[in-house]
Write a structure and sequence with these properties.
This protein is of the alpha+beta class and 356 residues long. It contains twelve helices and eleven strands. Strands 1-10-11-5-6-9 form a six-stranded mixed β-sheet. Helix 1 packs across helix 6 and helix 8 packs antiparallel against helix 9. It is rod-shaped and about 165 Å long.
Length: 356
């Protein structure tokens, strides 16, 4: 069953003084509040927090007609006094400030109301709204210009107005309620108020970011995205932009081999030059430097750059000239005796290039 609703008019709460030039007008405070005349009678207080405000604003956004400011709540007096119910102003959009409360943000006053406000003949507003048995504000009806902190006979007037504004107390279809609970991820015990809050949250977090107005639109948009991705996966790649992985890997291996060959050729040339000027010594030193060049050519170059040529390993002791004639007179008696035993004379040493 739908929770029973009641009509409230907050007249004991004094709104900030009206500014006729400002389009933003406060309608209700945030949090928990009561009227100075003791209302609400059915609950401890009225409540307007983030969850309730979300429902009020969502309901307002679905409304086709603008909200009206009347004079002194004539909207609920007219059934009794039969007087006209002229508008003092109009507004469409609502905004909730968790500290200050509920605001109308695009108020347009009539010319008459503007004059009355500018002349300080009207200074305050009073909102007319629906609330449940727990005091939760669920819907805004309209608002009034007023200077009266509490209207005489307000309870009787609100009871009469209930015939105009209170919805029929009919139950929600149980299958629909359970389906909505499942779709919104709510527990099976969730009531209509919880479903309304969840739907508002889904609209803010799912529909609006996707620029969709209904869940059907959202599902269709997601299906289109999936189809587009599937089409991309099955379409043959453009050969001007893509190559097979095998071709790419083969090319990469060829480039790596070519780079290695270039590095080896450069290393061989540097090593040969270093061997010729004594910076590298044949043998173990040469083997180590070749191994280093193969592993890290840059480190090899750095190490080679700090070595200096060794002339002793590259030149001849005579500077390329024939050795001077051997002074055979300097031979000892034993050396001369040995030459004689071999049947040779001292000139043999000069011809052969030196002493044995």
């Amino acid at each position: 069953m739908k929770p029973a609703l009641r009509i409230g008019a907050l007249n004991g709460w004094i709104t900030p003084t009206l500014d006729g030039d400002a389009p933003r007008v406060q309608l209700l405070p945030a949090g928990r509040f009561r009227s100075e005349d003791g209302r609400p009678a059915e609950a401890e207080c009225w409540r307007l927090e983030a969850a309730q405000a979300a429902q009020v604003i969502a309901t307002a956004e679905r409304r086709v007609n603008d909200f009206m400011f009347d004079y002194e709540h004539q909207t609920i007096h007219k059934e009794e006094n039969g007087q006209p119910n002229p508008a003092a102003g109009w507004f469409k959009r609502l905004e909730f400030d968790p500290v200050a409360g509920l605001f109308a943000t695009d108020v347009q006053w009539t010319a008459r109301a503007q004059q009355l406000i500018d002349a300080k003949e009207y200074r305050y507003v009073s909102a007319l709204f629906l609330y449940d048995q727990q005091g939760n504000v669920v819907k805004l009806i309209n608002a009034a210009l007023t200077n009266t902190p509490a209207l005489d006979g307000m309870d009787e007037l609100l009871a009469a107005a209930s015939f105009l504004y209170l919805p029929e107390d009919t139950p929600m279809d149980e299958n629909l309620r359970l389906a909505l609970c499942a779709m919104l991820g709510l527990g099976k015990e969730a009531d209509e108020a919880a479903i309304a809050v969840a739907l508002t949250a889904a609209q803010e977090t799912l529909l609006k970011p996707a620029a969709c107005s209904t869940f059907s639109d959202l599902i269709a948009k997601k299906d289109q995205s999936i189809a587009a991705l599937s089409q991309q996966a099955t379409t043959a790649p453009d050969p001007s932009r893509f190559v097979p992985v095998s071709v790419f890997n083969e090319t990469r291996e060829q480039l790596a081999a070519l780079s290695q060959k270039v590095h080896q050729t450069e290393a061989d040339a540097l090593i040969e030059a270093a061997l010729s000027d004594g910076r590298i010594i044949p043998g173990a030193d040469e083997d180590w430097m070749r191994s280093l060049a193969t592993k890290d050519l840059d480190t090899f170059k750095t190490g080679l750059s700090i070595r200096t040529p060794n002339p002793a390993l590259t030149g001849m002791q005579t500077g390329g000239k024939a050795p001077a004639e051997l002074n055979t007179a300097a031979l000892s008696a034993d050396q001369q005796k040995m030459l004689g035993a071999l049947g040779l004379d001292a000139g043999y040493l000069s011809e052969s290039g030196g002493a044995a």
